[in-house]
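Entry for glycine complex. Fields follow.
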Amino acid sequence: MMSRRDWVLAAGSLPAAAAAAAPKDIVIASSNGERACARAMEILKAGGDTLTAVIEGVTINEQDPDDTSVGYGGLPNEEGIVELDASVMHGPTRRCGAVASLRGIKTPSQIARLVMEQTDHIMLVGDGALRFALAQGFRDENLLTEKARLAWLVWKQSLRDGAGHSNWTDGLDAPVSRPGSSLRNQFPSVDEKTLTWALEVAVRPPTGTINCLALNVKGEMSGVTTTSGLAWKIPGRVGDSPIIGAGLYVDQDVGAAGSTGRGEENIRVAGAHTVVENMRRGMTPRDSCMDCLKRIARNFGDDRKRLARFDINFYALRKDGAYASAALWNGAIRDGKLARRQFVVNDGPASRLEDCAYLLERR
Ligand code: GLY
């Protein structure tokens, strides 16, 4: 007679309940994915393909100049040039595609899909990725919005040498900043809210990203991760988002996972692949994400001071529709208050935010 363990392994290595459950339409995403999930769900409900659904969803963010972490309007590299990374995975065909350090194209997730569908390769980078996109009929555009350019200038002007000197103020010939006035003086036409935001991203360069994962009633799964990466990065820096197995992983037999946050830490634990493999071995989506976060904390000797310098989230969607997201920290302190880490779920009428599980607590 088969032991329970053998039976579980035979059932596609999922827990028995998960293997037996009827699949359903469901989309999950990072906290910036409310519109993306809503659009993806419309496509699933109309019987569309799961990869088409998630890509059409995140295309909303990629084309939105106000989402400064993804696509058009993303914060640029240290030279003021926007470089984008993206990856896609299609469960039913078990294929994937990715682009990295792509300039000039607003929708890198669509180029990643074309790499998957039109080539015998998986990843194209830099100029090769741009030339491929142009050959596919995409237009080379300036991706740097005025808002992102302002933030980049604020970052440049905030840089100091060891003696506290900046090339922009207080030099022999540069304008002397007046007490209490520097930023406002330098950018007189910019409103207070935008300046405060620009200073915040100059001091704490963000790694915002969107990850979106989908399951349909046929049990098919797909995922996408797309980003402008770390603000002010060295040109050519590639984060986790386009790395299959780090920023995204889908196994049609088990489930899908993705990540947002500091990519360097995710690459070191092959995060999305680890989450999916954890689910394959029977862990819940929540525990699968938490295990990955523990591996990251372990890489820093569990030193809370060093871990406090970044954040990272994992998202997991199992083949039976069970899902979770977990963050390294419970939230970020904004205006003296804790803003909890959340993620987006859409399993029917509308997208909603749910709280992430977390490993460490900021008070
Ligand atoms: N997770 C996005 C990045 O680090 O580039």
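NOTE: Confidence is low (pLDDT under 50) at residues 1-11.
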